[in-house]
Structure formats: C-alpha cells, structure tokens
Amino acid sequence: MLVKQYAIKYNPNNKSKLVIPRNKINSTKKWVEYSLDIHDMSKLLMITNNLHDKFTLMQAIDIAQRKKDWHYKQDNFDIRAASTVLQAALNASKKF
Predict the structure, then answer these.
(1) Which residue, 27, 80, 89, 93, shows the most beta carbons closer than 10 Å to its own?
(2) Which residue ranges make up each domain of the chain?
C-alpha cells in the first residue's frame, strides 16, 4: 500500500457511526491485519524521505497500534492462532 492509502485507512477524523457488537468482531483476524499494517508502515517509514509522509505514517502507526492493543484485550482473541497466521504471512512475504 501507499502512504496515502494508509492515511485514508487510519484517518483520525474518520468517525464511523456504525456500531458493531464486540462478539461479532473477529479480534484475532483484526489483530493480524493491524500487525501486518504496522509492519508494512514501519518499512515505508524507513524508506520515505518526505517529512509530511513520515508524520502521516507515524500517526497511522499510532492509531493502528491502539486498535491492535484493543483487539488483544478482547475475549475472542486467540494468541496461538494470531501468532501462527502472522508468522506465516511474514514468512510468505519474505519469499516474494
């Protein structure tokens, strides 16, 4: 993804009015998604030279980290499944 796409996805002004019950959210999958996004954004942060983009990425990383932490605390979070999927995804991305 590009910096602009992460900026849109993790926009702090994007307040959704949709309320989904906690038990309907798969916290394990969302935790993996945010972990992969944080990993990719950290790589982009080291590559980019534009200060505006760096600031935008740092804000997006902060928001993604807060969301990741929230999902970690939920009852339906499974650390074994999450770590297995995350490691598989990271290993698969290294092969390509």
Answers:
(1) 27
(2) 26-95
